[in-house]
Amino acid sequence: MGPSLSTVISEKDLHKRIKEMGDVLTDKFKSAPVVAICVLKGSFIFFSDLIRQIECDMTCEFLSTSSYGNNAHSSGEVKLTMDISSSVQGRHVLLVEDIIDTGLTMSYLQKMFEIRKPKTITTVTLLHKPDAKKVDCKIDLVGFKIPNEFVVGYGLDYQNQYRHLPYIARLENLN
Ligand code: 5GP
């Protein structure tokens, strides 16, 4: 039997929550320009929807990390595979993640950016698996807390598939 999908967060619930998150971030950044940073690849859809709900002066940057290789279990090692293309020194940074599982990726990125001396760092994640947390990292805004299970859709993949699903699904019957 191949993998099967069941909905964890519907398209409607995603959009409602992302609008709320946008309002919180508009309040925070309305008087100060921000550099919004998309952590590729998984955040690309969340990032695109979120930034359109934030009313402020904004520039967008993209970086890429890898930690999972090609399977559903963390390798425990984070690598920066593509960096942003401008300086964040003295600027407000908004780091946008798709999901925080062990916290390794976010903790790695926070340390990396602290060295670059931004004015502030705000971290946002769409999904948070509190039960899987191994490493402490600062998270300012969470979209949804989810149980410790592997999810796909809305940018999140399994072997590069399922990113295009407009909702978050649990992937069952993985071999
Ligand atoms: P962490 O470093 O916090 O363990 O994991 C962060 C990264 O692992 C995320 O950016 C994401 O790429 C991947 N990840 C963690 N949990 C899941 C999951 O349930 N589904 C998918 N597709 N990716 C996950």
Would you give an account of this structure?
The protein is of the alpha/beta class and 175 residues long. It has one domain: Rossmann fold (3-Layer(aba) Sandwich). It has helices at 11-29, 44-51, 104-115, and strands at residues 4-9, 34-40, 58-66, 79-82, 92-100, 120-128, 141-145, 151-152, 168-172. The strands form two sheets. It has a six-stranded mixed beta sheet with strand order 4-3-2-5-6-7, sandwiched between helices. A three-stranded antiparallel beta sheet has the order 1-9-8. Helix 3 links the parallel strand 5 (92-100) and strand 6. Helix 1 (11-29) crosses helix 2. The longest helix has 19 residues, at 11-29. The mean pLDDT is 92. The chain binds guanosine-5'-monophosphate (5GP). The site of guanosine-5'-monophosphate (5GP) has 19 residues, from strand 5, helix 3 and strand 8. Guanosine-5'-monophosphate binds next to strand 5, helix 3 and strand 8.
Layout: helices, strands, pairs:
Blueprint: E1 4-9, H1 11-29, E2 34-40, H2 44-51, E3 58-66, E4 79-82, E5 92-100, H3 104-115, E6 120-128, E7 141-145, E8 151-152, E9 168-172
Parallel strand pairs: 2-3, 2-5, 5-6, 6-7
Antiparallel strand pairs: 1-9, 3-4, 8-9
The structure holds guanosine-5'-monophosphate (5GP).
What key phrases describe this protein's structure?
3-stranded antiparallel beta sheet, 175 residues, 6-stranded mixed beta sheet, binds guanosine-5'-monophosphate, 9 strands, globular, alpha/beta, Rossmann fold
